[in-house]
Write a structure and sequence with these properties.
Structural class: alpha/beta
CATH architecture of the largest domain: 3-Layer(aba) Sandwich
Helix content: 40-55%
Number of strands: 12
CATH class of the largest domain: Alpha Beta
CATH superfamily of the largest domain: Periplasmic binding protein-like II
Strand content: 15-25%
Order of helices and strands: EHEHEEEEEHEHEHEHEHHHEH
Length: 263
Amino acid sequence: MSHVRIGAVGYLNARPLTWALDADPDRWRVRYDVPSVCASLLHEGQVDLGLIPSIEYLQADDYRFVPGVGIGSRGKVASVALYTRKEIGEARTIALDTSSRTSVTLIQVLCRHHFRINPVFVPHGPDLAAMTSLCDAGLLIGDPAFDADHEALGLQKIDLGEVWTQMTGLPFIYAAWTGRPAGVNEGVVQALQQAQADGVAAREAIAAEYGAGDAARAARAAIYLRDNVKYGLGADEAAGLQLFLDYAADMGLAPRRRRLEFF
C-alpha cells in the first residue's frame, strides 16, 4: 500500500506514539480524532490501524494488537479521573465523558468490584462544571482531565489508574494500535514499535510543543509523560488488559470474552 491509513488520538498522552508518524507523511496518512471516533473508523474499515480504546478489541473477532505498543499506567495516570461532589460511596449519579469508551467501561467495573456502588450513568460532553452540576460525579479523560482545575469547583479527584492498580496490582492499558491482519504487515508493526521508541525519547520536545510557549505548562506536561503515562505492552500490561476485558465481558459491557491476539 502506498500509505498506511492511521486513526489516531490527538491527546497529549498519545503523542509519543504519533510523533514520528507525522514526520513521515509519505508512509503514514494520519487522522486525529477522539478515541470513540477512532474506534468507529476502524470498525467501518476507513483506517488500517486505529489507536482505539482497548475495550473495542472485543467488538471484532479478527482484531489484533501491535505487540509491545500501548498507552497505559501503573498507578496514577492523572488524565483519567472521576471528579466527585461527595464521597464516592454516596454517589448515585455519574456523568460519563462521551469521548471515551474504555474509561466508561473502567468506571463501571470499579463501581461494581471496588467501590461497591450501583449509580446511574449519564452520557455527557466533557464539561466538568456542567457534568457535576447535573450529577454527583463526572468522568473525564485525556487533555480535559489533565487540565481540569477541580479544586476551583470544589471537587475531589479520584484517579482511575491508581484505583485499578490498587485493586489488581496490575497496569492498565487505555489504548493500543489495533487492526485486522489483512491491512498490516511485519514492516508496519516494526515501524510502529520504532515510532514508540522515538516518541518516548522525544518526550521533552513533545511537552514543549504542548506548552506552546508556556514554560510551566510544558514542565507539567513533561512530568506527566515521564511519570504518569507508561508506554509499552509487555507481559504485565497484557495481564492487566486481559483481566479488564474479562471483567467487562462478564458484566455484559462487551459482547464476549476473548484472549489477546497480536500481529
